[in-house]
Design goal:
The protein has 240 residues and is of the alpha+beta class. The chain contains six helices and seven strands. The protein has helices at 63-66, 82-85, 98-104, 130-142, 198-204, 222-233, and strands spanning 4-11, 14-22, 29-31, 36-43, 49-56, 88-91, 94-97.
């Protein structure tokens, strides 16, 4: 069942975000600026059924993620990054690097040599280290806000791929303005103790005042939560 189609359209004045809501007959999608809550049932891999409201964003909510620079508030795409696209995919039965494919199609110019291209592992790639997978998950799902220039820049918690030092990435870091989102926990990440860490707590919550991301979900990503908890539990050290 198709629920919505979101478009980012580049116009002379910049990017515009538009959401189209599909009708029950699945024959037409109409521009829908005010948002919508669509009742659905999520069927988990184990067969359990979970009712939830699928939230279609209104036009102003799109900037919450797509305005990655809080100073300019300019909307832009957040998905196409070289480090994420530098992987082989199957095109018309042929496996080919996605960036190379875009060059061949005439959509991309000036691509550096393959060895110079950045590469980020997929968080579901079990051949990669747990640290690399967890950082990739946080980068994709949280990093566009949690950067020094992003909407969550004042939090001091940076989860994009460029963040490297322990404190900015949350290890033994006190929250700045999480409010109820802390769950009465002290640190974003406590090495070896996922149960004492704020990040997995907020990932698990579906309470609007606590959950992260703040918009864009109304269910839990059990697999992602399990990865982040495993990553934290495997860390060495303490916050004393």
């Amino acid at each position: 069942r198709m629920i919505e189609t979101r478009l980012l359209i580049h116009r002379e004045e910049g990017w515009a975000a538009l959401t189209y809501l599909w009708n029950d007959a699945q024959t037409e999608a109409v521009l829908h600026r005010i948002g919508e809550a669509v009742p659905l049932t999520l069927v988990r891999e184990n067969g359990t059924k979970e009712p939830f409201n699928y939230i279609v964003p209104n036009v102003t909510q799109c900037s919450a993620c797509h305005a990655t620079n809080v100073a300019t508030r300019v909307i832009q795409p957040i998905g196409p990054k070289a480090r994420l696209m530098n992987h082989d995919f199957t095109f018309a039965g042929k496996s080919e690097n996605q960036l190379t494919r875009l060059v061949d199609m005439g959509y991309l110019k000036g691509l550096p040599a393959q060895k110079e291209l950045p590469l980020q592992v997929s968080w579901v790639d079990t051949t990669a280290s747990v640290d690399a997978r967890a950082r990739a998950y946080l980068d994709v799902n949280c990093g566009h806000c949690h950067t020094p220039q992003g909407p969550a820049g004042t939090s001091g918690l940076y989860l994009d791929a460029s963040a490297t030092q322990p404190k900015p990435t949350g290890v033994c870091k006190l929250p700045v303005a999480a409010g109820a989102g802390t769950g009465n926990l002290l640190y974003d990440i406590v090495p070896g103790k996922a149960d004492k860490s704020i990040i997995p707590y907020r990932m698990h919550s579906i309470n609007a005042a606590e959950m992260m991301p703040e918009i864009g979900r109304s269910t839990r990503d059990d697999e992602g939560i399990a990865l982040i908890r495993f990553w934290i539990d495997a860390m060495e050290g303490s916050c004393q």
